[in-house]
Amino acid sequence: MPPLIALQEVSRIFTSGAKSVTALDRVSFDIQTGSFVSIVGPSGCGKSTLLKILSGLLPATSGAISVNGKPVHEPLENVGMVFQAPVLLKWRSVLGNVLLPVEFAKLDVTGYLDKARALIHLVGLEGFEEMYPHELSGGMQQRASLCRALVTDPQLLLMDEPFGALDAMTRDELDMELLRIWEERKKTVLFVTHSIQEAVFLSDVVLVMSARPGRLLETIVIELPRPRTVEMMSATKFGEYTLKIRSLLSTAGGGQGAATGSTM
After folding, report:
1. DSSP the chain
2. Mean pLDDT for the chain overall
3. pLDDT > 70 fraction of the chain, expressed in percent and rounded
């Protein structure tokens, strides 16, 4: 089966005046439909840049990117994005924020109301539809942000450290919630994180990046059974994966950012 996403020798150079910085250097990988893939690496290695290139929001300096076999030259339509900050509009309710992508796509909002409410129920926010962002906890805001990313039923979900700013307990809870939704909705997920443990716990595959300029050090297939449980984190195999990734980052000058990433 052809991959959903294919990157071939993708590089990105940022130029300002006479100065240039190489953020990504000849990155190549494939992602299969329905898989959960995490990217780990130190701060500044180009993880967020990679997501922007994949979504079509930022052009690559060189190399080729394709989604569904089609070259990416402009922003993709069939993609949902979740960022570290929820980025909710403070003057709109939870339901209003969730429906934003529908409005931007100039779709019939009425036809998406039931879907939006079903998603809100799915993430445990039923009863909060008319609340405003300032009335919600950080975890609840991220749940609303996840609903917003899913409301148009995108094939691909790009997540840039979505739970990094949350406390450990809330982060654990949302990781489990995300896995539940992923297993139910069968989306393809590309998830950026600084936490090695989180990457191993969530993923089918972990892409390990070097320090800037970001290069792909290794692609690690996570052969842990699904559904995942918190108890798996104490398993020998889980520890072997985390130690391997930590060793790769340390050997390649990954610095402390990812090597000592937050635990779940």
Report:
1. ---SEEEEEEEEEEEETTEEEEEEEEEEEEE-TT-EEEEE--TTSSHHHHHHHHHTSS--SEEEEEETTEE--S--SSEEEE-SS----TTS-HHHHHTHHHHHTT--HHHHHHHHHHHHHHTT-TT-TT--GGGS-HHHHHHHHHHHHHTT--SEEEEESTTTTS-HHHHHHHHHHHHHHHHHH--EEEEE-S-HHHHHHH-SEEEEEPSSSB-EEEEEE----SS--GGGGGSHHHHHHHHHHHHHHHHTT-HHHHHTPPP-
2. 91
3. 95
- CB atoms under 10 Å from CB of 182, counted, come to 19
Kindly state the tokens that stand for 96. 């209003």
What pLDDT, in 10s, does the model give residues 106-138? Answer: 899 999 999 999 999 989 999 999 999 999 999
pLDDT at 261 over 60: no
Output the CA angle 196-7-164, nearest 5 degrees.
30
Percent of the chain with pLDDT over 90: 75
